[in-house]
Amino acid sequence: MTSSKWVKHMADLQDLYRQIILDHARNPQGRGLIGSLQDGGVAQSHQVNPTCGDEITLRAHVMRDRSGDVRILDVSWEGQGCSISQASSSVMTELVIGQTLTQVEDLAAAFRSLMDTRGGTVDPQVEEQLGDAAAFAGVSKFPARVKCALLAWIALRDALLKATPVEGERHG
Ligand code: ZN
Question: Is 119 left (phi over 0), alpha (psi -120 to 50) or beta?
């Protein structure tokens, strides 16, 4: 790729990333708490980001499958705040539903590493692993906004720590 083509490629990528964040902020996935805290395998976490005023209440539903892996059946949330916090909650929800806790830990670590790049080069492997969540790469340039993007991930981690998975034989 010539350098001018590379610059064009990067500009297109930034446009694409901006569009992904806007789409998720306008049409958030997983918004609106579902189920009840009394349901088995369900736990909830409330987190605030005082520097920006973002707030999230996130509910996770986990199940242990037959192979012994704990898997996320569902994530739903209610929140308010800036478009970065809302879009990040939405993208994360899409990314983690159906994944095992081990996979979610890997994704969370990848997202944290993305936020640590401070606007620098993103590891292509991290980018591929994160899919739409890689769109937040530009946020890493702004330390105050990193907290907005991480809020949902912090809430998810806390909810997963509190959750006792139901044993999943019901699909059998
Ligand atoms: Zn914010």
Answer: left
Q: Around ion ligand 1, which residues have CB less than 5 A away?
A: 52, 54, 81-82, 85, 148
As given in the structure block, the two tokens for residue 106 are 């890997």
- Domains, the chain, with CATH or none: 3-167 (3.90.1010.10)
Query: Hey, how many other C-beta atoms are within 10 angstroms of the C-beta on 158?
Result: 17
Q: What is the pTM of this model?
A: 0.91
Q: Tell me the pLDDT tens digit for each residue of 115-172.
A: 999 988 889 999 999 999 999 999 999 988 999 999 999 999 999 999 999 997 654 4
Could you identify the residue written with the tokens 């606007």? 119
Residue 82 CA to ligand 1 center (angstroms) comes to 4
Ligand 1 centroid to 69 CA: how many Å? 34
10 pLDDT higher than 90: no
